[in-house]
Design goal:
Elements: E1 4-9, E2 13-14, E3 17-18, E4 25-32, H1 42-50, E5 65-72, E6 105-109, H2 117-121, E7 132-135, E8 140-146, E9 156-162, E10 174-177, E11 189-196, E12 199-205, E13 213-222, E14 230-241, H3 256-264, E15 267-274, E16 277-284, H4 292-302, H5 313-323, E17 333-335, H6 354-362, E18 368-371, H7 373-387, E19 391-401, E20 409-413, E21 427-439, E22 450-454, E23 461-462, E24 465-466, E25 471-472, H8 473-478, H9 487-495, E26 498-503, E27 509-515, E28 521-526, E29 533-535, H10 537-540, H11 547-557, E30 574-579, E31 591-599, E32 605-616, E33 622-635, E34 640-647, H12 649-652, E35 661-669, E36 676-684, E37 691-695, E38 704-711, E39 718-727, E40 731-741, E41 746-753, E42 759-768, E43 776-783
Parallel strand pairs: 7-14, 17-18, 20-26
Antiparallel strand pairs: 1-4, 2-3, 4-5, 6-8, 8-12, 9-10, 9-13, 11-12, 13-14, 15-16, 19-21, 19-28, 21-22, 22-25, 23-24, 26-27, 28-29, 30-31, 31-34, 32-33, 32-35, 35-36, 37-38, 38-41, 39-40, 39-42, 42-43
Helix pairs in contact: 4-6
Subcellular location: Membrane
Pfam family, one: Transglut_C
Main location: membrane
């Protein structure tokens, strides 16, 4: 119609980054064209108006309007106006046209190109194909084209994602994604970031604990309140993976070089042979190869695991451990140690996971013949890396196989020192290959996240199924075999003592000899960034024959089937604990704790406490040890000693991560009684509070102010400091950039605002600085009516 103009202005921010793209205004001028217009039936005009993308005019000469698009910078915020409906009367009794065009989706573009923004930013551009493959906890983009311009003031839209055969909202398998004005972390939501004519661009958030797998997408639109919604089912699917780049994801790995190695590297080295003659073979993991991602998702489907459980990497790794071997569940590989492989492929002939996984998938889950430990491990590495879980193949030389949960490797002889074959079920393998995978363990006590051992080779059943792990490597090292999953079995593989037993005339057995260094040597994996071998034995066990190693072995064995194999302590009369004075150590100063050792006996006691302090993520994952000490302690009868323990600022200043948490581990043995002492204490370095002082009378509609004071506790300059200030009913949230703050310097900021709501209000402020986190403050302000 003459003079009609459609104006669309989009917001000035794209995604979470304000100002990332210059705003534009789209002006669409629609005016009548001179000359005689061609007659068109009302039915056709009605159909063209309902679905213009399906009913295009065949000849430009028949157009009765011209479209003119002008791009200018907007003078005001986003406003969407729609043209008035065509009120022309039907001619010759033809059907009356609909007064308002119902909104419907013409097309959804998931922007899934391998070279596009989504795939590159999500580190999924190496995967074969052009599907949208994304990682949870991270924003992605998509575009939707409608049959007419989308009007935020009158149109409604939502996205829905569904995974599994029976999607349920409460299980996280049916996700309803609302349209919001501003995006926040840790939730499903979408925001319009661009709008051009009939097309909108969306930024979509997902939480870091979202269920992984294949999702179907639908878009639901509605124009009027009572109008029946229109549902568009996208032909494109979305694949969601774990995200080692996202701090909130339980598989987060805080080292880019390690992420490149343990997630993105599609080839590796697997070690074999003997500890004195270590061999290496190259293995093609091929996690990005054509068909491999589909095969990995197929394995999850065949496992019978409920889709709602796929958000937890602990559960998924346990399922993968079972599904890579064939017993119980028709998994990927059949194990064969007979030397007869004529009806399959010799385990030594494989050098890649790709053919194995593709064959399993294409045959609809017929197990592939044959595999041994290095093949099971290579395939497991492929599947875990493909799903986004950092993983590596690990080889243990002189690897024990404990069959009776004694946590020892037992060898039995008769009265004449002849082996009793039917009792000698434990064995020692020249080498055995399993996997490490990286994740937090919120199901375990703090300090047990990080590397977890998982073994897909079918050796012993766990809860009725051939699987093993994930078992915390830190727990294995300490002998904490009571922590799940299958920690006793892996502990015995790397650190069991070899015990020799002789049968006596009465039929009982006595211990005649023990080897303490026979098991678990040269534990190996490929080094990060090179083809060299990295020895990681120190991660699995303390140095052989050290007091810490002996304590771990004896601690573990007390939870085994032969708990009395090592002599019990004559007494347990020494206690050790760690005390934190007041509110605890402060950031920027030496951290000081007190170790209290008390002798509750009437005899003197002597011990040496081995102390180690390590930086810890809030997820319980230990980053690295930053200080170790040996502390000799001599106690008189009934004496209590308090030992001062100090961690100098210089030793931790460049080591901390968010939350500034550390874990102090103490262990030792009492010389006189052989009592084992152990203690773990988690503490954090307290950061200063922001001091907020209200100034003036707090009255609705009357300007007042507040003073915010911050003192840098560190003897170093803080870079790029900013304050974030907000108060509901007081003022909108905003950022105040301060810049650099000198060592021990004080900054004072005065905020001016006008309260809008009466009652108790809170003015909240926080510090934004990479070098110093968790600094915040709050002030209660009682606002009176005017």
């Amino acid at each position: 119609m003459p003079g009609e103009r459609l104006t669309i202005r989009n917001p000035s921010e794209v995604g979470r980054f304000p100002g990332a793209a210059a705003p534009t205004k789209v002006e669409l001028t629609i005016q009548s064209e001179g000359g005689k217009k061609q007659e068109e039936g009302a039915c056709r005009r009605w159909f063209r108006k309902i679905c213009p993308c399906c009913c295009k005019r065949q000849n430009s000469a028949s157009y009765d309007v011209t479209d003119k698009v002008e791009f200018t910078k907007p003078p005001a915020p986003a406003v969407v106006t729609t043209p008035e409906p065509d009120k022309s009367k039907p001619e010759n009794g033809e059907m009356k046209e609909t007064e308002e065009v119902k909104l419907s989706v013409c097309m959804v573009d998931l922007l899934s190109s391998k070279t596009g923004q989504n795939r590159v930013e999500h580190h999924t551009d190496l995967y074969h194909g052009d599907e949208l493959i994304i990682r949870r906890g991270q924003m992605f983009q998509m575009e939707i084209e409608f049959n007419r311009p989308f009007g935020a003031d009158m149109d409604k839209m939502r996205l829905e994602l569904k995974t599994g055969s029976l999607p349920i909202v409460s299980k996280g398998t049916h996700v309803i994604i609302p349209l919001v004005d501003s995006l926040e972390d840790e939730r499903w939501e979408a925001k319009i970031t661009e709008q051009t004519c009939n097309k909108i661009r969306l930024s979509v958030n997902s939480p870091a604990d979202a269920v992984i797998g294949l999702y179907g997408l639908t878009v639901t639109t509605q124009s009027a309140k009572d109008e029946k919604p229109t549902v568009y089912n996208s032909s494109e699917n979305i694949i969601m993976l774990y995200n080692p780049w996202c701090e909130e994801d339980n598989v987060f790995l805080d080292d880019e070089e390690q992420r490149k190695e343990y997630v993105l590297n599609d080839t590796g080295r697997i070690y074999y042979g003997t500890e004195k003659q270590i061999g290496a073979r190259t293995w093609n993991f091929g996690q990005f190869h054509e068909g491999i991602l589909e095969a990995c998702l197929f394995i999850l489907e065949k496992s019978g695991m409920p889709p709602s459980g796929r958000g937890d990497p602990v559960n998924v790794v346990r399922v993968i451990s079972a599904m890579i071997n064939a017993p119980d569940d028709y998994g990927v590989l059949v194990g064969n140690w007979s030397g007869k492989y004529s009806d399959g492929v010799s385990p030594a002939a494989w050098s890649s996971s790709v053919e194995i996984l593709r064959k399993y998938h294409s045959s609809n889950a017929i197990p592939v013949k044959y595999g041994q430990c290095w093949v099971f491990s290579g395939v497991t590495t492929t599947v875990l890396r493909c799903l986004g879980i950092p993983a590596r193949s690990v080889t243990n030389f002189q690897s024990a196989h404990d069959t009776d949960v004694s946590l020892t490797t037992d060898v039995y002889f008769d009265e004449n020192m002849q082996p009793i074959d039917f009792l000698n079920n434990d064995s020692v393998w020249n080498f055995h290959v399993w996997n490490d995978c990286w994740m937090a363990r919120p199901d375990l006590p703090p300090g047990h996240g990080g590397w977890q051992a998982v073994d897909s080779t079918p050796q012993e059943t766990s809860q009725g199924t051939f699987r093993c792990g994930p078992a915390s490597v830190n727990a294995i090292r300490s002998g904490h075999v009571y922590l799940k999953h299958d920690t006793p079995f892996v502990f015995a593989e790397v650190n069991s003592d070899k015990i020799y037993w002789q049968r006596k005339l009465d039929g009982t057995f006595c211990q005649v000899y023990s080897e303490k260094k026979a098991i678990g040597h040269c534990i190996s994996t490929k080094a990060v960034g090179s083809d060299e071998r990295a020895d990681i034995t120190h991660l699995y066990k303390h140095p052989e024959d050290s007091e810490e190693e002996r304590i771990a072995v004896e601690t573990a064995c007390r939870y085994g089937s032969k708990p009395d194999i090592y002599s019990a302590p004559a007494a347990e009369d020494v206690k050790v604990e760690v005390k934190i004075d007041g509110e605890g150590p402060r950031m920027g100063s030496d951290a000081k704790l007190s170790i209290v050792v008390k002798n509750q006996s009437s005899q003197p006691r002597q011990t040496t406490l081995h102390s180690q302090v390590a930086v810890m993520y809030y997820t319980g994952v230990l980053k690295n040890a930053i200080k170790k000490d040996n502390i000799p302690v001599d106690l008189l009868p009934n004496e209590e000693k308090t030992l001062d323990w100090v961690l100098p600022y210089q030793q931790y200043q460049n080591q901390l991560v968010d939350q500034a948490a550390l874990m102090l581990t103490l262990s030792g043995r009492v010389s006189e009684t052989k009592q084992v002492l152990a203690n773990q204490t988690t503490f954090r370095l307290r950061t200063p509070d922001l001091q907020i002082t209200p100034l003036g009378e707090a009255v609705v509609g009357k300007e007042m102010s507040a003073k915010i004071t911050f003192t840098n506790p560190l003897p170093r300059v803080l870079k790029n400091v900013a304050f974030r200030v907000e108060g509901l009913g007081l003022q909108k949230g905003h950022e105040v950039v301060v810049g650099d703050v000198g060592a021990k310097a004080t900054v004072t900021l005065t905020e001016h605002f006008i309260p809008t709501q009466p009652g108790l209000r809170k003015l909240v402020a926080s510090l934004d600085c990479k070098q110093l986190t968790q600094v915040h403050g709050v002030a209660d302000i009682i606002v009176c009516e005017q």
